[in-house]
Write a structure and sequence with these properties.
single chain; mainly beta; Jelly Rolls; 6-stranded antiparallel beta sheet; 6-stranded mixed beta sheet; 14 strands; globular
Length: 181
């Protein structure tokens, strides 16, 4: 695997070595000792999967306080534009966002540390996103930032008219009012 530092402090792109032939492909998607050496020593305790259709926007999500989660995100099927926003007040990249296109061809993964909001939009007809978390989901700590916040001005890679966003995600506070770490 090749590890690449992202534009936001602590974000790491992980590029696996994919071995393919006429039968298909194989790649090692995770090895704890290599992850600990190259990224951080982290134990993942929950893994989630979502299926979404083209234009679906999920996010921007995070958990507050002690329930904050680090995530290791990958795409099992399709292609997404993955967005992270730095909510850590003491970070040199506080208030910045970045986007990465990840898919089932390159199998690139994104490590997202605690204190960042995360979201994605589906660019293919269908996508299956998988992510490991280092803390269990805590409904009382659930929070978010409005996906179309004018201060952040995130380029989702689709027009707002194409976006399919849940009622819940339409009601998150804007950047100025959202929880910060």
């Amino acid at each position: 695997m090749r590890f690449e530092q992202g534009e936001i402090e602590g974000v790491v792109l992980i590029h696996p070595q994919v071995l393919g032939d006429s039968r298909g492909y194989f790649f090692e998607s995770f090895r704890s000792e290599e992850f600990a050496r190259e990224v951080c020593d982290r134990t993942f305790v929950q893994e989630n999967q979502s299926l979404s259709h083209r234009g679906v926007v999920r996010g921007l999500h995070f958990q507050r306080g002690d329930a904050a989660q680090a995530k290791l995100v990958s795409v099992a099927m399709g292609k997404v534009r993955d967005i992270v926003v730095d909510l850590r007040k003491d970070s040199p990249t506080f208030g910045k966002w970045t986007a990465y296109e990840i898919d089932d061809q390159t199998h690139t993964q994104i490590y997202i540390p605690r204190g960042l909001a995360h979201g994605f939009v589906v660019l293919s007809e269908v996508a299956v996103l998988q992510y490991k978390c280092d803390a269990v989901y805590a409904p009382d700590a659930e929070s978010g930032v409005l996906w179309c916040d004018p201060t952040l001005n995130i380029d989702w890679g689709i027009s707002p008219a194409e976006a399919m966003v849940s009622d819940k995600d339409q009601k998150w506070p804007q950047w100025q009012e959202c929880y910060k770490f």
